[in-house]
Amino acid sequence: MSQSLSLDFEATLTELEKVVSELDGEVKLERALELFDRGMKLSFDCESFLKGAEQKIEILKRTASGLTTEPFEARLLESTDKNQ
Amino acid sequence: MHSPKSTSPLHPVLTVSQLTAQIREVLEEVFENVLVVGEVSNAKLYNSGHWYFSLKDKDATLPCVCFKINNTSLRFKLEDGMQVVLRGKLNVYPPRGAYQLVASSIEPVGIGEWQLAFEQLKEKLSKEGLLDLERKRPIPMLPRRIGVVTSTAGAALRDILSALARRNKLVNVVIAPAKVQGEGSAEDIVYAIKALQRIPDVDVILVARGGGSIEDLWSFNTEIVARAVSQCSVPVISGVGHETDITICDLVADLRAPTPTAAAELVARGSAELLDRWQGLEKRLLYRMEDRIARARHTLTRVDPINGLLRYHERLKRKQLKVLSYRDRINHRMAHALNNAQYKWRQNHEKLSVLGPQNVLSRGFSILRKIDGQIVRTYDDVQAGDIIEGILSQGRLKLRVEEVHEER
Questions:
Q1: How far is B319 from chain A (nearest CA, A)?
Q2: For residue B250, pLDDT beyond 90
Q3: Contact A60 B176 (CB under 8 A)
Q4: Residue A5 and which of B78, B85, B256, B362 are 20 to 30 A apart at CA?
Q5: CB of B157 within 8 Å of any CB in chain A?
Q6: What pTM did the predictor assign?
Q7: H helices of B147-259, where?
């Protein structure tokens, strides 16, 4: 997954914003339909970004050769003491 | 040298050393363990670690020393004007005919030791300009990765992760585990902050700890943590303790959040705004299109319904249906794809288990195999006297072929 997922998301969103603003104005029906199709496609793209987005949680480990990151199981935290 | 008149066995003439030795003996014995209160003046904190100062009140001055071994455990630094209570013993220094109090402990009067240390460090950093508002860097709206410095055993980490998961999932997280209280915790926090700066794409670092007493939170009031935060190459958000706890780390950080949860929400707010924007835009898109079609329809009803326009009307109707069913279709497609995959998997799974031998064996069939592993299929695969193996649904048999017949 791309590190800059939110940047991709934002770029798509900006384009969607343009489409919607054009649709807000006075446009011919044919153009409106075109814009709508384009807008829906962009909106689906946004949705699939979100569906594909799985928050990556990692933890730093010190090793002999330096630093590495390993996946972190957030589930394991559920059993920790609330008062700690 | 001296007048014989003054010489008598009861009043011997003493040398300076002798007298001083006697004075020393008396004073050091009588004032072996005293408590004394007064104001610090002329404090000199030498590089050797020893502190020399005077304790005074209105009418008297007492020279004092506090050796390194006794002051390293103190969190504050001695300053002129401070009211303190010393515990210690009197010490006479013969070469100068002077006495001083050797302090084994120093306690500030009127203000707690912790508070005093906090104020002193705050003042020191403030003089260096490290608390200036102009130094505060903006927090990136869309961080690629958030570095989190906290303990994996504390509630703070769970609070942060659940706040991030709640707000959105577009932000990735790298946790740098650190002890957040007790011996070595300040060093751990410093190490974690430095380590995170070497991880690619970490755009902001969150330093966090749940609530606790001032002693528990102390590592966040140390100079090494304050310096690590102020020298950090990316902006730092501090979320330490409860709302009412303010630490030096909070003051030095680029942004102070009242709690760990609030810190996570601050860092996620940019992406959360994007989500809101998207949902708003999608609604507007659908609404605008429906509206546009409705208007076109309305226009149509006002003109003569000639054939061409009627066809156009039909087409519009279809487009409108398309608009309305767009989202349903997507949802259906997803659900369908998922069901399909599950169905296929189950089917394949069953097929495989039918093909495997276990199923056949459990129905009462068995497999005969020669010593070399070759399966016995027909009568001429074996000869009378051969030893063969029978594989059953459960267990195996060692068999000897008695007779071989071509037909039953």
A1: 8
A2: yes
A3: yes
A4: B256
A5: yes
A6: 0.60
A7: 155-167, 185-196, 223-230, 248-252
